[in-house]
């Protein structure tokens, strides 16, 4: 018994019976085999601690930016770009997403695959799906998606690793995103975003394209503000709320021209040299669909710019 009995009782019996019944009736899983699999999932207190931890104070942009825009992340991003040049060119040609943006996403998410997570995905999703009531429905759904993708890709679900929340591989896809957007970009018969950069690159590009990426479009434009009404233009949330013409009427002047009818977001960041004002274009909103944060999208955008500049200088 020993060590095995310590984990074997975590997810078995009544605790998982309803889930197993659903997977059997709706998706044709064999009940006994699924019960045996879930009995090997381990409840991880570290995962519950991580997700329950009070959110860190919101960093201002002047502190957030230096985390991601570093010499090391730029240099290693250029190396990643060089090593995967063919796949990046093919992804850009097929999906219209620039190579530097794809590299930047993977750079921000996992430092080009160096930090993809050390938890077994099944442990993360079982722990959160059965022992974290605040978001139990979400993570139970992701556990369902994970079991489906393991069956579809014919991989052992006990072997796949990810973050404490179940995000996986170089692009940190949740299982539902994997099933919806991951692609077999090297056409070898299966999708591997963990150790195959080609599939990870194609999958990230497909995600962006499917969320509305506009080929050739800018992401964000610096702006100056004037008058007494400019704060009325500041976007609440992430959804574009005004078009560029309306924003100009409120005192916003973009550094480069924006079509009047373009739907935009407008935001202020606390920069190292004072307040910065920015206008986010449709592609900016696409990046926030990957991670719902203005500063995240700005970090990706500025890392992409830095990568393109460094790449061009070589």
UniProtKB/TrEMBL annotation:
GO biological process: peptidoglycan catabolic process
GO molecular function: peptidoglycan lytic transglycosylase activity
Coiled-coil stretches: none
UniProt cross-references to Pfam families, sorted A to Z: SLT_2
Domain Transglycosylase SLT: 15-305
Catalytic site: 109
SUPFAM superfamilies named among the record's database cross-references: Lysozyme-like (SSF53955)
The protein, known as: Lytic murein transglycosylase B
Gene behind the chain: mltB
């Amino acid at each position: 018994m020993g060590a095995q009995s310590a984990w074997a009782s975590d997810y078995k019996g009544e605790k998982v019976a309803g889930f197993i019944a659903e997977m059997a009736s709706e998706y044709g899983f064999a009940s006994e085999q699924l019960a045996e699999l879930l009995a090997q999932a381990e409840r991880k207190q570290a995962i519950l601690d991580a997700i329950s931890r009070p959110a860190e104070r919101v960093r201002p942009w002047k502190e957030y930016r230096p985390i991601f825009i570093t010499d090391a992340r730029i240099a290693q991003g250029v190396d990643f770009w060089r090593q995967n040049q063919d796949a990046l060119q093919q992804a850009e040609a097929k999906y219209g997403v620039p190579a530097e943006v794809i590299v930047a996403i993977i750079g921000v998410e996992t430092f080009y695959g160096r930090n993809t997570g050390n938890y077994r995905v099944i442990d993360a999703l079982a722990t959160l799906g059965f022992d974290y009531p605040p978001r139990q429905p979400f993570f139970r759904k992701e556990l369902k998606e994970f079991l489906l993708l393991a069956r579809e890709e014919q991989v052992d679900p006990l072997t796949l690793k990810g973050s404490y929340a179940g995000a996986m591989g170089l692009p940190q896809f949740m299982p539902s995103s994997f099933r919806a957007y991951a692609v077999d970009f090297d056409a070898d018969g299966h999708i591997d975003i963990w150790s195959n950069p080609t599939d990870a690159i194609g999958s990230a590009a497909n995600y962006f394209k499917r969320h509305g990426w506009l080929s050739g479009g800018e992401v964000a434009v610096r702006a100056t503000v004037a008058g007494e009404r400019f704060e009325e233009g500041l976007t609440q949330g992430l959804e574009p709320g005004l078009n560029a013409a309306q924003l100009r009427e409120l005192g916003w002047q973009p550094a480069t021209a924006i079509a009047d009818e373009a739907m935009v977001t407008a935001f202020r960041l606390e920069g190292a040299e004072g307040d910065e004002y920015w206008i986010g274009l449709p592609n900016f909103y696409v990046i926030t669909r990957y991670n719902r944060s203005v500063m995240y999208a700005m970090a990706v955008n500025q890392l992409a710019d830095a990568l393109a500049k460094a790449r061009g200088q070589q």
